[in-house]
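Input/output pair, single chain:
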Amino acid sequence: MSHRPDSSPYRFLIRDFARSPGAQRTVSETFPAPAVLGTVMVGVPEGAEIRLDASLEAVSEGIWVSGTVAAEAVGECGRCLDEVRFDVAAPVQGLFVFDQSQVGDEEGESEDVFEFDGETLDLEEVVRDAVVLQLPFTPLCRPDCPGLCDQCGARLEDDPDHAHEVIDPRWSALTSLTEQEES
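Output:
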């Protein structure tokens, strides 16, 4: 019997053990990445392969989900704008409750608590949160990337001795004196 509804690759049927505390199921699935999984600078491209290995355990409040999600992120280096590719492996966890009011929390809602209908779990939000939190704010092709010249945009790695003669604007009026002497 399949444990996957046809509507979404992130949805799992769990009605057969949802209200049986202690029951457990493991999930090892590969599916396409959703439309937005990252930022403009870096993210997992839509349709790229995502691997989810998780344990679904029935508890008295609902279903506890824990495991890992892995994917390849693509972006551009924040210094030289070259393409950057790297593997992302993120822990996934969350409690899916039958009724949100069952979970007591002094501060209101917890980040790792989600409501569900008692029959299917939709793990897209959990996967999205886990992956996005593992992405760097500014990806780099390597830690010592020299980047681009701020004057002309030349790649500094291709020409490490690249430099421009920059005159302090406060002294620029004096350059006319040296130009007159040379002529």
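The first helix runs from residue 124 to 134. The chain has a mean pLDDT of 83.
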